[in-house]
Write a structure and sequence with these properties.
With 224 residues, this protein is of the alpha/beta class. It has 2 domains: 3-122, Rossmann fold (3-Layer(aba) Sandwich); 126-221, Orthogonal Bundle (Arc Repressor Mutant, subunit A), CATH 1.10.10.10. The chain has helices spanning 11-23, 34-43, 60-70, 84-92, 105-122, 152-163, 171-179, 188-200, and strands spanning 3-7, 27-31, 48-52, 75-79, 97-100, 126-129, 132-135, 140-143, 146-148, 169-170, 207-212, 216-221. Strands 2-1-3-4-5 form a 5-stranded parallel sheet, with helices on both faces. A 4-stranded antiparallel sheet has the order 6-7-8-9, covered by helices on one side. The chain has a 3-stranded antiparallel sheet with strand order 10-12-11. The radius of gyration is 18 Å and the shape is elongated.
């Protein structure tokens, strides 16, 4: 049984999510703030965390940083702060998704299921592309004898493509997977990041990121 950690200082929010999650067959662990959540993470095997931002003692931003440093699990930030700057900060500290209160519990359940599927597909720590190695834990790429640490979104985009070689992803799919469903930009963002990845790894000969006209992008392994 998968375990979801709910971190919120509002007992009503915790109760609401607990009822829906248990109905869907999830085990639920609760914490009132970030400090208590760290204790729960040390004690339990947690598969996903739903984290409020505005909490006493340790807020959601700090907790998300803690999770990204010491654990490998998806995070959904659940908060009343809906401004673009707040979302940007949340994604900068490593959240996978962002839901603004008030919310529909069923929507949170949908997002939890989607994130768990995604993590189960791409949770291998190392991705090997010929002699190129992508380390999802250290956010580092080793290629052509060099160690490269790309910006976070470039790295996430590369991981998504590299986890499924030869699979075509539309721009919309990549935006949803890498930037999240609440992203307010456009698909031009994907094109810009793909261009940067191609430039960053232009000297390696293990893979190429190909544009599939009218569809999207795919990462192809080079035949040797």
């Amino acid at each position: 049984m998968l375990t979801v950690l709910i971190v919120d200082d509002d007992a009503h929010i915790r109760e609401l999510l607990r009822l829906y999650l248990r109905k869907e067959g999830y085990n639920v662990v609760e914490a009132e703030d970030g400090v208590e959540a760290v204790d729960r993470l040390d004690e339990e095997q947690i598969h996903l965390a739903v984290v409020d931002i505005m909490m006493p003692n340790m807020d959601g931003y700090e907790l998300c940083k803690e999770i990204r440093t010491f654990y490998d699990l998806p995070v959904i930030m659940l908060t009343a702060k809906g401004a673009l700057a707040d979302k940007e900060k949340a994604y900068d500290v490593g959240t996978d998704d962002y839901v603004v209160k008030p919310f529909e519990p069923k929507e949170v359940i949908f997002r939890i299921k989607a994130l768990l599927r995604r993590y189960q597909m791409v949770n291998e720590e190392l991705i090997h592309l010929g002699k190129t190695t992508i380390n999802r834990k250290s956010y580092e790429v080793q290629s052509m004898g060099k160690h490269v640490i790309p910006p976070l979104k470039e790295f996430d985009l590369l991981c998504q493509l590299a986890s499924f070689p030869n699979q075509i992803f539309t721009r919309e799919q990549l935006i949803e997977t890498v930037w999240g469903t609440d992203f307010e930009g456009n698909d031009r963002t994907v094109d810009v990041h793909i261009k940067r990845l191609r430039e960053r790894f232009k000297d390696q000969d293990d893979f190429t990121i190909r544009t599939v006209r009218g569809l999207g992008y795919t990462l192809e392994l080079q035949q040797k």
